[in-house]
Amino acid sequence: MRPEELWSRFAWHDGSCFRCEQRGIPVAEIGDIAVAGETFPLFACQRCVFRLEQLHWTMSERAIRRHSATTSAEPHSPGQWPAATPLPKPPAHVA
């Protein structure tokens, strides 16, 4: 998956990235976090969204390998489990 394909799945606006702490850059809401009973949205920049997706893919692959090593059942395809939104292939590297 090319970066542009992944980024097209999000609504972007100027803001601050929770991960790299850059300000005044395009960010998208990627989830939320609860602190002391209050919920706050998390926004990430394009580079961090891409990196988080790469990490998600890697962790999904590891979980599949671990799961298939402990059971005789057919493993799920990497794009379908445990990802909520299947990806056809892992995200490419962002320079």
Mean pLDDT comes to 79
The ordered string of helix (H) and strand (E) elements is HEEEH
Radius of gyration: 16 Å
Based on CA inertia axes, which overall geometry fits? flat
Main beta sheet: 3 strands, antiparallel
Judged by helices, strands and strand pairing, the structural class is: alpha+beta
Total strands: the figure is 3
- Sheet-strand content, in percent, reads 25-35%
* Strand arrangement across the biggest beta sheet: 1-2-3
Q: What is the helix content?
A: 25-40%
Please give the count of helices. 2
Distance between the termini: 14 Å
The low-confidence parts are 79-83
Oligomeric composition of the shown chains = single chain
Account of the 3D structure:
Helix content is 32%, strand content 26%. The chain contains two helices and three strands; from the N terminus they run αβββα. A hairpin with a 2-residue loop joins strand 2 (23-35) and strand 3. It is flat and about 45 Å long. The relative contact order is 0.18.
